[in-house]
Amino acid sequence: MFEAKYQTFADSAAPALGTARLKRLREELQRRGLDGFLIPRADAHQNEYVPPCDERLAWLTGFTGSAGVALVLRDEAAIVVDGRYTLQAAAQVDTASFTVVPLAETAPDRWLEKHLPAGAHFGYDPWLTTVESEQKLRRAATAAGGVLVAVDGNPLDAVWHDRPAPPLAPVTLRDPALAGESAPDKIARVQAALAEQKLDALVISDPHSVAWAFNIRGGDVNFTPLPLAWALIPRSGRPTLFVDGRKLSNAARDALATFTEIAEPMLLERAVEKAAASGATVRLDQATAPSLLAARIESAGGKASNGVSPVALMQAAKNAAELAGMRAAHRRDGAALARFLAWFDAEAPKGALSEIDAVCALETFRRDTGALKDVSFPSISGAGPNGAIVHYRVSEATNRAIRPDELFLIDSGAQYEDGTTDVTRTLIVGTASAEMRDRFTRVLKGHIAIARAVFPLGTSGAQLDSFARQHLWAAGLDFDHGTGHGVGAYLSVHEGPARISKLGTVALARGMVLSNEPGYYKTGAYGIRLENLEIVVDGPAIPGAERTLLAFETLTLAPFDRRGIDTALLTPDEVAWLDAYHARVFAEIGPLVDEATRSWLQAATAPLAG
After folding, report:
1. Residue-range domains of the chain with CATH
2. For 11-46, how does the pLDDT look when each residue is reduced to its tens digit (9 = 90+)?
3. Do the strands 172-173 and 216-217 form a parallel or antiparallel pair, or are they unpaired?
């Protein structure tokens, strides 16, 4: 009945090919005089989602997760993955050829230090390795008595004979009404920040930041409207946008040429060297910049300043037009969600739905809006025990029936031209056990605590993170992921630098959009996560307050499943917040849906006491 256009469920892992491909790579390494090589799951921009031509780790090992690194030596090889992917990696790679190493036990540099033979030459691609990663590798190789070698041309590419071509999706210009600020004005702000920080130039290596600063979008990777591009912004004068000219229409080129030079990406190195001449200080984004650019700056006589890009904080604090677009996108998305939830409530009890069925239905309801550009990430659709796998991605091999008296967790998002969404609901099929309702309510209480938080200007996400955990902690429970991440405006669903997390040291600022998604996961049984997006806004005026206060405005508009709530665990203030939120959901979404959905929504958003 429903189908997915933007997501696939095939398991593309090919572990049987790993041995032969590993042999070819080793032969190429030997030809180049190398004893080993690093294969990260990364492109030159450190993107979360990479184009097919940069899926080197998947091609070599069969592992298709979004994070990992392989280390290949002459006689052994390892793939290091974090806790999300240890089971997946073991299932997808040929474990006779690759040892799966949990990151929590051994980091890649530590593995290298322990396994690299003395005198060995270990290679890495400086386009795919950040300065920090390169420094760790160099220390490890030196400690092992080996030599770290930056390769000129990736040896894996030399043996990947059917490697896909780089993407050439058209670059589009951002609607000024949605951008809310012209690109020249943004660049002027960036240049003012460079002057304030006594920097001579900035290399923008993160395509999300390039897209934001130059008011452009593209389609070079899945799930995020990115043009793969670079930029060089001097402290004064015209910037340069480095983008494959084949992506630019005449109209786009003419519009961009009014405020920026346009050059092919192959000219980036030469331009960076020129900018670094005469001892200039050039800022590189420590999270995304290739170590190769730092080497070029230093060799040209300049100073590579490896730090936070000033664009990141500007981009994170959305302006009024961007926030208006985000609100509109969430109302539209809320209507699609209401249609899905009403449909699910009617169909799931019949016992015929699967995890894939749910993904296809929700994407279809979003496509029916006529405005969907893409999903913002592959939907996490977990029934019963699959819901306990935090980053579970359903495939044809793992697809599970949604059964009565189970919990069903669906985490999904959409890309609309006016905004990006990300929402998780945990749904009860049949009857929830007393334990399930207890855990559901404790997660909900943590969610409400974040949504209701009022905090002083300068507060970091780390200071708020425990608000979401306190009621779980009281029962000896917790969850292992962060409480929230930043979200872009028709950009990445995972945007830095701010987050609500034990590691979130960046102060929250007005206009930032962050997720609020506490959870609880019982391995082998069920998972619970309740997620809305929040805008950081001005806090209430409190008589006698001595600090400027901030608060959250909830963007997401979708009911929480009342059947999972143990009302005895909620305080009157929590009940009042939930009733007010549900009343708002019905007021804003009710007029946007058909009569049958509206009737369902009215019942789903009724006051808890009713």
Report:
1. 15-159 (3.40.350.10), 172-314 (3.40.350.10), 320-599 (3.90.230.10)
2. 766 777 888 999 999 999 999 999 999 999 999 999
3. antiparallel
